Amino acid sequence: MQRELELKLDINARDAERLKHEPLLAWAPVSHKHELTVFFDTPKRKLKKAGFMFRIRHSGRSFVQTVKASGTGAGLFERSEWEWRVHSMDPDFTVLDQTPLGSILTARTRARLQPVARMQINRTTWLLDDGECLIEVTADQGFVAVDGTQAPVSELELELKLGSPRVLFRFADKLARRFALRLGVLSKADRAFALADDEPVKPVKAGKVKLRPDMSIADGLSEIALSCLKQFRLNEPLLVERRDAEALHQMRVAIRRLRSALHLFASVIKNDRDFRRVAKGMRSLGLRLGEARNLDVFIDGLGDAAADLAPLCHIRDEHYARIICGLDSPKIRRLMLRTVRWATVGGWREKKKARLPLGDFMRDRIEDAWALVTSSGESLVTLSEKDRHRVRIHVKKLRYALEFAGGLFKGVPDHRRRFSVAIEDLQEQLGYLNDLRVARLLVCEYCDDWVTEKLPDARKEAAILAKAERCFKRLLEIGPYWREPEPTPQPAVAVRRPASAAPPAASRTRAPRSAGVAPAPG
Q: What is each CA distance from 282 to 229, 240, 287, in whole angstroms?
């Protein structure tokens, strides 16, 4: 088994042709070959669900069989890989037993293994060797095919064979100044299975972040940051191609989550110069997305009345156009790449604190976030609109922190579930109040007075606030679940009873439901 560190980038077909004449690569040995790759799995995708990719690649007279475990997030693919030379395009199960996949490939599974998709690739490879660092640069162009349906593939991969990862990123930045490179978030296997399973293109919510208590603080933040960038990039094509409002919302959520993570880890990274550049860039991007999102929510909330607000819709469309143009700018493309570089090989990672275990650090930060939520007192009704907005931000940051640390502090399952429901309900109600606050500002800026009549009146607002108050009190009553140790499973104990004893009668009384947040009227 080997570990590979690979920076994957998307490149358009035109730039891929220009790359062949790039002076940065002209001095390096270059090779060309054609590859046929077949991806295998069962009809129910047993291997994919287990987190593995299995393929056989044919080039010239060579057949190479590969197993890869799932990689990390945006751009950076660091994962376990097993590879062997085989004699044909038929799977060789004898060597597969040497990998974790061996335990999954039962006789029944092996019998059901079948080709999923075929990929034809023209590959150009440069080998950059300066004596201290060895980087393999690979440009792939071709297509993936399933039953006559094809999808194009155009990628650039930088794989570190030897040396410092920082050199890899410096070279990537040089290329990004010359070509329109975007962080790649889909592996070739992802593309193949998406086509094979006819997966619809739809907005993507945040994925689970896989944190472990034995991780360093630095690795924990890196994992979170890459997850946020992946969510952003997965939604970007849908926004650009269809101007999808939900895709824009999820891109905004991704930036908010990333900025919350930077705030959460501030004590470790605050004096880092590159951090300030990343934070400034993400704040600016988040503000642009937020302006368009606010208009989306406002216009959608007006319902049929929005038809009379053509100028406002035009303003919203202009916001979308500026965002889409910005996403195609070198500034944003390089911001994404710079963020990956900073998170994975930045100088802040060398600090003593950054190398400490993640578990205790996250627990302390979550306690700090909880303290901010509860510092406003026990009532939202008595707070000013500005202070309630501040509570909303604190609640959102706490919820993000708990989602990041999902695998670290599980607590008692029922307690955790009730807390999760309560904080989600509270955030939703506070979100409605914030939408109303923003709507009033937009009316003053863009609309005539008659639009005010379409907004919720004082009675409706009071009902939302009352529901938020109940949710807040319920959250305080439930209290932190992460302070409780995870219950230890107890071994089953057999209970013996006399043979003459009758089995206990089944109870007709249903156990009471766990307490939840009672829905408020209106």
A: 11, 19, 9
Helices assigned H by DSSP within 303-412: 310-327, 330-345, 358-374, 385-404
* Contact call for residues 448 and 302 (beta carbons, < 8 A): no
- Give the number of C-alpha atoms closer than 13 A to the C-alpha of residue 56, restricted to the C-beta side: 20
Nearest Cα residue to 359 out of 488, 219, 212, 485: 212
d(Cα 8, Cα 3) in Å, to the nearest integer?
15
Write phi, then psi, for 40 (nearest 5 degrees).
-120, 150
Q: Which of 350, 357, 348 lies closest to 271, judged by CA?
A: 348
Look at residue 448 in the predicted model and tell me its pLDDT: 64
Percent of the chain with pLDDT over 90: 73
Q: Give the gyration radius of the chain's Cα atoms.
A: 27
pLDDT of res. 109: 94
Residue-level pLDDT at 517: 35
- Nearest by Cα to 29 from 167, 136, 156, 168: 136
For 352-386, write each residue's pLDDT tens digit.
999 999 999 999 999 999 999 999 888 999 999 99
| Rounded distance between C-alpha atoms, residue 35 and residue 155, angstroms | 14
Count, in order, helices (H) and strands (E) of the chain.
17, 9
Residue pair 156/149 in contact by the 8 Å Cβ criterion:
no
Q: Copy the structure tokens of residue 378.
A: 């026990």
Nearest-angstrom CA–CA distance, 11 and 180: 6
501 with 406: CB under 8 angstroms? no
Q: State the architecture of 1-199 in CATH terms.
A: Beta Barrel (2.40)
| CA pair distance 53, 333, nearest whole angstrom | 29
Torsions phi, psi of 229, nearest 5?
Answer: -65, -35
Q: How many other β-carbons are positioned within 10 Å of the β-carbon of residue 399?
A: 19
How crowded is residue 521: how many other Cβ atoms within 10 Å of its Cβ?
6
C-alpha span between 201 and 91 (Å, rounded)? 31
Alpha carbon distances (Å) from 170 to 46, 135, 282, 341: 39, 12, 21, 9
Q: And the tokens for 191?
A: 């593309």
Distance CA 71, CA 238 (A): 23
Report the CATH superfamily, name and number, of domain 204-356: CHAD domain (1.40.20.10)
Buried b (16+ CB within 10 A) or exposed e, 209-237: bebeeebbbbbbbbbbbbbbbbbbbbbbe
Q: How far is CA 8 from CA 92, 119, 155, 181, in A?
A: 28, 17, 7, 10
**Calpha distance 99→81 (Å, rounded):** 9
Strand ranges for 199-296 from DSSP E: none
Q: Which parts of the chain sit beneath pLDDT 50?
A: 1-2, 492-495, 497-522
d(CA 500, CA 357): 58
